[in-house]
Amino acid sequence: MQISLAFQEFYPHSPNAVWAALTDSKVLAAWLMPNDFTAEVGKSFTFKEAPALGSNWRGWADCSVVELDEPNKLVLSWDGTGSSKTTVTFELKAEGQGTRVSLHHNGETTNADAAELKETWRHKLGNLQGWLRGHRS
Question: Out of 78, 93, 123, 137, which residue is the most buried by the measure of CB atoms under 10 Å away?
């Protein structure tokens, strides 16, 4: 099944602060998932998190950095099922006293995974807001 998820969030923080939250492995672990991320095009890495009861999540996503345009755009390949072929794109645009973040998760995955991804990204983007509020000005 083809998915095309899109989210837009405003964060009252500079693009550089938001970029750091998207590209620092320790910060990613705080709001998204534990990982071995390196901000370098072509680098493979894994996000890991225990599966929730009744979830389709297998416990990890195999990823790689497809595009890196600091501090504007980050594109990741994302395989959370072992057979999905998706990409996650974060685009940052300065807006007033903050940053507008657009997140797109597109590609081929299962029906069940698509519904779960939608709820998961909503939750994780809220986590990002909380992390930024507590750690960045």
Answer: 78
